[in-house]
Amino acid sequence: MILLDAREGEPDRTGVAAIFEGFFDFETGEPRRGGMGIPRLRLGDERLWGFECWWRPDPGRAGFTADDREQLETSKRLLRGLLRDARRAGLRGAVSART
């Protein structure tokens, strides 16, 4: 389940069911063992790398729940706070995200 699609300029896939394909090498696309590669998800003919979105397993096919939305909003608030604190600490070059 895609909780939040973090890609810019792409169709928003938030709330869409995806199939976990496994872990892969980012450069070659070859399969890797769990923890040794990057997760990849398939949405129809499209593939998403695990770092391009926030996602979670959904074995019960519950879909995008109210709890998901609440946890996502909490995470976004925490992230905004971290970015704000980093800017205040003078780490502007290390942080390049919009708030």
The helix-strand sequence is: EEEEEEH
For the largest sheet, list the strands in their spatial order.
Answer: 3-2-4-5
Overall strand count:
6
Major β-sheet annotation = 4 strands, antiparallel
Helix-residue proportion? 10-25%
Q: Proportion of β residues?
A: 25-35%
Distance between the termini: 25 Å
Name the poorly predicted regions. none
Q: Tally the helices.
A: 1
How large is the radius of gyration? 16 Å
- Morphology: globular
Summarize the SSE layout with pairings.
Blueprint: E1 2-5, E2 19-24, E3 31-32, E4 38-43, E5 46-49, E6 53-55, H1 66-88
Antiparallel strand pairs: 1-6, 2-3, 2-4, 4-5
A few lines on this structure:
By secondary structure, this protein is α+β, with helices and mostly antiparallel strands. It has one helix spanning 66-88, and strands at 2-5, 19-24, 31-32, 38-43, 46-49, 53-55. It has a 4-stranded antiparallel beta sheet, with no helix packed on it.
Characterise the protein shown here.
This protein is of the alpha+beta class. Helix content is 23%, strand content 25%. It is built from one helix and six strands. It has one helix at 66-88, and strands spanning 2-5, 19-24, 31-32, 38-43, 46-49, 53-55. The strands form two sheets. Strands 3-2-4-5 form a four-stranded antiparallel β-sheet, with no helix packed on it. A two-stranded antiparallel sheet has the order 1-6. A hairpin with a 2-residue loop joins strand 4 (38-43) and strand 5. The longest helix is centred in the last third of the chain and has 23 residues, at 66-88. The two termini are 25 Å apart.
